[in-house]
Amino acid sequence: MMDNVLLCDDELMNRKVASKILNKEGFNVIEAQNGKEAIEILNTQKIDLILMDLMMPVMDGYEATSIIKNDERFSTIPLIIVSALSDKAAITKCLKLGANEYLTKPYDIVEFSLRVKNAIKLGAYQNMLKEHKKILEQEVAKKTKELQDALIEIQKSEHDIISILGKTAEYRDNETSAHTLRVGEMAALIARKFGWSSEDIELMRLASPMHDIGKVGIADNILLKPSKLDESEFEIMKQHSVIGYSILSQKETPLLKLAAEIAHTHHEKYNGKGYPNALIGDDIPLSGAIVAVVDVFDALLSERPYKKAFTLEKTLEIINNDSGLHFHPKVVEVFMENLDEILEIKEKLQDV
Description:
Layout: E1 4-8, H1 12-24, E2 28-32, H2 35-42, E3 49-52, H3 61-69, E4 79-83, H4 88-97, E5 101-104, H5 109-174, H6 179-193, H7 198-207, H8 220-223, H9 231-237, H10 240-248, H11 254-265, H12 286-301, H13 312-321, H14 329-337, H15 339-348
Parallel strand pairs: 1-2, 1-3, 3-4, 4-5
Helix pairs in contact: 2-3, 6-7, 6-12, 6-15, 7-11, 10-11, 11-12, 12-13
């Protein structure tokens, strides 16, 4: 297939001489009499090389070169200035505009032919690179989309597994309760009020229902005992926070990492008298401190095999009295400031 050379020159004789040389070398020549015609041709035909005169009517070579080299459709097409102007200023200006070569008239036929052939090769190489880059970009985009889809699927599967595990613990404890769902929504609400990012709020919503997953490792005679646990039974029950951490810390995904942290710390107390590590004050992760409040709040309002449901008034009294002792005072403050929204969650997610 012949390469197309766009020859732009307002002098007929110049075009005839150049065309004869180019035809002899096996190129197909398309002629234009000024820069405007050259650009019109570029918009309709595939061009492999541009030979551009400078001094022309309608649109000179400077303006045409600038337009061509600033248009991404044409910028990689090799462009040789062929002009009678031989001063350094003209040459420098054209090269700054993006011209690849500059030949002065009258030109040497052998040099002219070699420059044209080399420019055609350069253009072919640039086109190859451009196509290669395009293919690579398409492949990268394709692989990126595949990875994004795979990540979404993995995250969805992780969320589903987390939900199932949360339900497993819930069924062992009280199969008709929506307690874990309420804890998740309440904890997410408090996290939002603390200014957490939307991503971290969503992680909180998903991770908090896992706070008691460790109860799957507690024997039924203790977990389901309808009366108060004795001291030795309570020591066994306290192990559920460690068991939960052990289950959830097998992988370091953001969701499981947060879920493990919550399972491990939601029974720590602000005054250092909680378990399993007797953490004090701000040593307790905020995630665990938040779940500690909403977990106790919802549990007190809920009926259990070993107790009746407390009234809202009594529950709030307990929460307020334990601020700074059991609970982080700032968490209690935020909780109370947003009590209406907390109660809406309680009402919306009622036990079956």
